[in-house]
Amino acid sequence: MASARSSRSVFARPGLVIGLGLLALQFIAIVFAPWIAPFPPTEANPLDSLQPPNAVHWLGTDEIGMDIFSRIVFATRVNLLIGFAAVALSLGVGVPVGLLVGYYRGLPSALVMRFFDFIQSFPVFVLGMALVAVLGQEIWSVVIVLCMLFVPMFARIVRAEVLSLRERPFIAAARCSGAGDFAIMFRHILPNAMTPVIVQVSVSIGMAILLTAGLSFIGAGVRLPSPEWGLMVSSGAQQMILGIWWIALFPGLAIVLSVLSFALLSDEAKRYVDTGRGGRAR
Protein backbone atom coordinates (compact mmCIF):
# COMPACT_ATOMS: atom_id res chain seq x y z
CA MET A 1 0.00 0.00 0.00
CA ALA A 2 2.81 2.39 0.89
CA SER A 3 4.66 1.72 -2.36
CA ALA A 4 1.47 2.18 -4.39
CA ARG A 5 0.79 5.45 -2.58
CA SER A 6 4.32 6.72 -3.23
CA SER A 7 4.07 5.66 -6.88
CA ARG A 8 0.85 7.64 -7.28
CA SER A 9 2.44 10.67 -5.63
CA VAL A 10 5.38 10.54 -8.04
CA PHE A 11 3.18 10.39 -11.11
CA ALA A 12 1.02 13.18 -9.71
CA ARG A 13 4.04 15.49 -10.18
CA PRO A 14 4.59 15.76 -13.94
CA GLY A 15 7.67 17.95 -13.53
CA LEU A 16 9.44 15.22 -11.59
CA VAL A 17 8.41 12.52 -14.07
CA ILE A 18 9.53 14.56 -17.10
CA GLY A 19 12.78 15.61 -15.45
CA LEU A 20 13.68 12.07 -14.42
CA GLY A 21 12.67 10.73 -17.84
CA LEU A 22 14.88 13.21 -19.69
CA LEU A 23 17.74 12.55 -17.28
CA ALA A 24 17.35 8.79 -17.80
CA LEU A 25 17.55 9.27 -21.59
CA GLN A 26 20.79 11.19 -21.18
CA PHE A 27 22.35 8.50 -19.00
CA ILE A 28 21.24 5.85 -21.49
CA ALA A 29 22.97 7.85 -24.24
CA ILE A 30 26.12 8.11 -22.11
CA VAL A 31 26.33 4.42 -21.27
CA PHE A 32 25.12 2.90 -24.54
CA ALA A 33 26.40 5.50 -27.04
CA PRO A 34 28.55 3.03 -29.04
CA TRP A 35 25.52 0.78 -29.54
CA ILE A 36 22.94 3.53 -30.12
CA ALA A 37 24.91 5.62 -32.63
CA PRO A 38 24.89 4.09 -36.12
CA PHE A 39 28.16 5.82 -37.13
CA PRO A 40 31.38 6.88 -35.36
CA PRO A 41 30.94 10.49 -34.15
CA THR A 42 34.08 11.82 -35.85
CA GLU A 43 33.82 9.84 -39.09
CA ALA A 44 33.52 12.23 -42.05
CA ASN A 45 32.33 11.17 -45.49
CA PRO A 46 32.39 14.08 -47.97
CA LEU A 47 30.19 12.09 -50.35
CA ASP A 48 27.37 12.21 -47.76
CA SER A 49 27.73 15.90 -46.85
CA LEU A 50 24.66 18.06 -46.16
CA GLN A 51 22.15 15.25 -46.46
CA PRO A 52 18.73 16.01 -44.93
CA PRO A 53 17.19 13.53 -42.48
CA ASN A 54 16.66 10.20 -44.19
CA ALA A 55 16.49 6.46 -43.55
CA VAL A 56 20.29 6.09 -43.31
CA HIS A 57 21.19 9.33 -41.53
CA TRP A 58 18.19 9.82 -39.24
CA LEU A 59 18.95 13.48 -38.44
CA GLY A 60 20.97 14.23 -41.57
CA THR A 61 24.66 15.04 -41.98
CA ASP A 62 26.76 18.16 -41.63
CA GLU A 63 28.94 19.97 -44.16
CA ILE A 64 31.75 17.40 -44.00
CA GLY A 65 29.50 14.34 -43.92
CA MET A 66 29.46 13.50 -40.21
CA ASP A 67 26.25 11.88 -38.94
CA ILE A 68 24.36 14.35 -36.73
CA PHE A 69 22.44 11.77 -34.68
CA SER A 70 25.65 9.93 -33.78
CA ARG A 71 27.37 13.17 -32.79
CA ILE A 72 24.42 14.26 -30.62
CA VAL A 73 24.45 10.93 -28.78
CA PHE A 74 28.20 11.05 -28.12
CA ALA A 75 28.06 14.76 -27.27
CA THR A 76 25.88 13.86 -24.28
CA ARG A 77 29.00 12.35 -22.71
CA VAL A 78 31.04 15.50 -23.28
CA ASN A 79 28.45 18.02 -22.12
CA LEU A 80 27.38 16.11 -19.01
CA LEU A 81 30.99 15.30 -18.13
CA ILE A 82 31.83 19.00 -18.20
CA GLY A 83 28.69 19.92 -16.27
CA PHE A 84 29.11 17.35 -13.50
CA ALA A 85 32.88 17.87 -13.21
CA ALA A 86 32.59 21.65 -12.99
CA VAL A 87 29.87 21.51 -10.35
CA ALA A 88 31.67 18.82 -8.32
CA LEU A 89 34.91 20.83 -8.26
CA SER A 90 32.98 24.00 -7.40
CA LEU A 91 31.32 22.24 -4.48
CA GLY A 92 34.65 20.91 -3.26
CA VAL A 93 36.13 24.40 -3.17
CA GLY A 94 33.16 26.72 -2.64
CA VAL A 95 31.48 24.95 0.28
CA PRO A 96 34.55 24.88 2.62
CA VAL A 97 35.46 28.45 1.66
CA GLY A 98 31.92 29.67 2.31
CA LEU A 99 31.89 27.85 5.64
CA LEU A 100 35.16 29.44 6.75
CA VAL A 101 34.40 33.01 5.64
CA GLY A 102 30.95 32.78 7.23
CA TYR A 103 32.18 31.45 10.54
CA TYR A 104 35.34 33.57 10.87
CA ARG A 105 34.37 37.15 10.20
CA GLY A 106 36.94 39.89 9.77
CA LEU A 107 39.37 41.31 7.22
CA PRO A 108 40.42 37.97 5.63
CA SER A 109 36.77 37.02 5.04
CA ALA A 110 36.05 40.44 3.59
CA LEU A 111 39.04 40.15 1.22
CA VAL A 112 37.88 36.71 0.03
CA MET A 113 34.40 38.09 -0.74
CA ARG A 114 35.87 41.05 -2.63
CA PHE A 115 37.98 38.60 -4.65
CA PHE A 116 34.79 36.73 -5.53
CA ASP A 117 33.24 40.05 -6.59
CA PHE A 118 36.23 40.63 -8.85
CA ILE A 119 35.86 37.20 -10.51
CA GLN A 120 32.12 37.57 -11.02
CA SER A 121 32.56 40.99 -12.59
CA PHE A 122 34.09 39.38 -15.70
CA PRO A 123 31.68 38.42 -18.50
CA VAL A 124 31.71 34.63 -18.72
CA PHE A 125 32.67 34.51 -22.39
CA VAL A 126 35.50 37.05 -22.00
CA LEU A 127 36.86 35.04 -19.07
CA GLY A 128 36.44 31.84 -21.06
CA MET A 129 38.36 33.14 -24.06
CA ALA A 130 41.16 34.47 -21.83
CA LEU A 131 41.58 31.17 -19.97
CA VAL A 132 41.36 29.11 -23.15
CA ALA A 133 44.13 31.26 -24.65
CA VAL A 134 46.30 30.43 -21.62
CA LEU A 135 45.31 26.80 -20.96
CA GLY A 136 44.55 25.63 -24.48
CA GLN A 137 41.27 24.69 -26.13
CA GLU A 138 40.56 21.51 -24.22
CA ILE A 139 37.62 20.06 -22.32
CA TRP A 140 39.31 20.62 -18.95
CA SER A 141 39.86 24.28 -19.80
CA VAL A 142 36.08 24.67 -20.01
CA VAL A 143 35.73 22.85 -16.67
CA ILE A 144 38.15 25.29 -15.03
CA VAL A 145 36.31 28.29 -16.47
CA LEU A 146 32.97 27.05 -15.15
CA CYS A 147 34.51 26.13 -11.80
CA MET A 148 35.81 29.69 -11.39
CA LEU A 149 32.31 30.98 -12.05
CA PHE A 150 30.50 28.59 -9.71
CA VAL A 151 32.86 28.65 -6.70
CA PRO A 152 31.82 32.20 -5.69
CA MET A 153 28.16 31.27 -6.09
CA PHE A 154 28.34 28.20 -3.82
CA ALA A 155 30.55 30.06 -1.33
CA ARG A 156 28.01 32.89 -1.07
CA ILE A 157 25.12 30.47 -0.54
CA VAL A 158 26.95 28.62 2.24
CA ARG A 159 28.20 31.84 3.83
CA ALA A 160 24.68 33.27 4.01
CA GLU A 161 23.45 30.12 5.75
CA VAL A 162 26.41 30.06 8.14
CA LEU A 163 25.89 33.70 9.14
CA SER A 164 22.36 32.80 10.14
CA LEU A 165 23.13 29.49 11.82
CA ARG A 166 26.15 30.56 13.90
CA GLU A 167 23.92 32.70 16.13
CA ARG A 168 21.36 29.97 16.82
CA PRO A 169 20.91 28.60 20.36
CA PHE A 170 22.06 25.09 19.44
CA ILE A 171 25.46 26.51 18.39
CA ALA A 172 25.76 28.29 21.73
CA ALA A 173 24.88 25.01 23.43
CA ALA A 174 27.59 23.22 21.46
CA ARG A 175 30.15 25.82 22.57
CA CYS A 176 29.06 25.44 26.18
CA SER A 177 29.50 21.68 25.91
CA GLY A 178 33.14 22.20 24.94
CA ALA A 179 32.95 21.68 21.17
CA GLY A 180 35.75 23.37 19.22
CA ASP A 181 35.41 25.50 16.12
CA PHE A 182 36.15 22.60 13.78
CA ALA A 183 33.46 20.39 15.36
CA ILE A 184 30.93 23.22 15.39
CA MET A 185 31.52 24.06 11.72
CA PHE A 186 31.54 20.57 10.27
CA ARG A 187 29.29 18.68 12.68
CA HIS A 188 26.63 21.25 13.54
CA ILE A 189 26.62 24.09 10.99
CA LEU A 190 27.53 22.45 7.68
CA PRO A 191 24.80 19.75 7.64
CA ASN A 192 22.18 22.44 8.29
CA ALA A 193 23.65 24.77 5.64
CA MET A 194 23.63 22.25 2.78
CA THR A 195 19.90 22.36 1.95
CA PRO A 196 20.02 25.36 -0.44
CA VAL A 197 23.28 24.03 -1.88
CA ILE A 198 21.62 20.74 -2.84
CA VAL A 199 18.87 22.65 -4.65
CA GLN A 200 21.45 24.83 -6.41
CA VAL A 201 23.44 21.84 -7.68
CA SER A 202 20.79 20.83 -10.22
CA VAL A 203 20.44 24.41 -11.45
CA SER A 204 24.21 24.74 -11.75
CA ILE A 205 24.56 21.57 -13.84
CA GLY A 206 22.00 22.95 -16.29
CA MET A 207 23.81 26.30 -16.31
CA ALA A 208 27.13 24.52 -16.92
CA ILE A 209 25.70 22.67 -19.94
CA LEU A 210 24.30 25.92 -21.35
CA LEU A 211 27.53 27.85 -20.76
CA THR A 212 29.60 25.02 -22.26
CA ALA A 213 27.49 25.20 -25.40
CA GLY A 214 27.84 28.98 -25.47
CA LEU A 215 31.62 28.88 -25.09
CA SER A 216 31.93 26.27 -27.84
CA PHE A 217 29.62 28.33 -30.05
CA ILE A 218 31.97 31.32 -29.93
CA GLY A 219 35.06 29.14 -30.36
CA ALA A 220 36.27 29.24 -26.74
CA GLY A 221 35.20 25.74 -25.75
CA VAL A 222 35.47 22.26 -27.19
CA ARG A 223 37.11 22.11 -30.60
CA LEU A 224 36.45 20.00 -33.68
CA PRO A 225 36.13 17.15 -34.33
CA SER A 226 34.97 16.43 -30.76
CA PRO A 227 31.17 16.08 -30.61
CA GLU A 228 29.64 18.88 -28.56
CA TRP A 229 26.19 20.40 -28.85
CA GLY A 230 27.21 24.08 -28.93
CA LEU A 231 29.94 23.39 -31.46
CA MET A 232 27.42 21.60 -33.68
CA VAL A 233 25.00 24.53 -33.44
CA SER A 234 27.84 26.90 -34.35
CA SER A 235 28.74 24.98 -37.51
CA GLY A 236 25.07 24.62 -38.44
CA ALA A 237 24.27 28.30 -37.90
CA GLN A 238 26.43 29.15 -40.91
CA GLN A 239 24.21 26.95 -43.08
CA MET A 240 20.83 28.22 -41.88
CA ILE A 241 20.72 31.03 -44.43
CA LEU A 242 20.97 28.40 -47.16
CA GLY A 243 17.95 26.54 -45.82
CA ILE A 244 20.03 23.74 -44.27
CA TRP A 245 18.23 23.76 -40.93
CA TRP A 246 18.88 20.29 -39.51
CA ILE A 247 22.56 20.79 -38.60
CA ALA A 248 21.76 23.43 -35.95
CA LEU A 249 18.20 22.46 -35.01
CA PHE A 250 18.70 18.99 -33.54
CA PRO A 251 21.72 19.75 -31.30
CA GLY A 252 19.90 22.91 -30.22
CA LEU A 253 16.93 20.79 -29.15
CA ALA A 254 19.33 18.49 -27.26
CA ILE A 255 20.60 21.50 -25.28
CA VAL A 256 17.05 22.62 -24.52
CA LEU A 257 15.93 19.19 -23.29
CA SER A 258 19.06 18.64 -21.20
CA VAL A 259 18.85 22.02 -19.46
CA LEU A 260 15.08 21.55 -19.02
CA SER A 261 15.60 18.23 -17.23
CA PHE A 262 17.88 19.79 -14.60
CA ALA A 263 15.63 22.84 -14.22
CA LEU A 264 12.62 20.61 -13.54
CA LEU A 265 14.56 18.49 -11.06
CA SER A 266 15.79 21.62 -9.29
CA ASP A 267 12.24 22.89 -8.97
CA GLU A 268 11.10 19.54 -7.56
CA ALA A 269 14.02 19.48 -5.13
CA LYS A 270 13.06 22.95 -3.90
CA ARG A 271 9.47 21.83 -3.35
CA TYR A 272 10.66 18.78 -1.46
CA VAL A 273 12.94 20.90 0.72
CA ASP A 274 10.18 23.44 1.41
CA THR A 275 7.82 20.62 2.38
CA GLY A 276 10.45 19.01 4.61
CA ARG A 277 11.01 22.32 6.40
CA GLY A 278 7.35 22.46 7.24
CA GLY A 279 6.50 24.97 4.54
CA ARG A 280 3.94 24.51 1.86
CA ALA A 281 5.20 23.70 -1.66
CA ARG A 282 4.29 26.34 -4.15
Automatic annotation (TrEMBL):
It is found in: Cell membrane. Signal peptide: none annotated. It comes from the Bacteria. It is a multi-pass membrane protein. Keywords: Cell membrane, Membrane, Peptide transport, Protein transport, Transmembrane, Transmembrane helix, Transport. Its main location: membrane. Belongs to the binding-protein-dependent transport system permease family. This is ABC transporter permease. It comes from Methylobrevis albus.
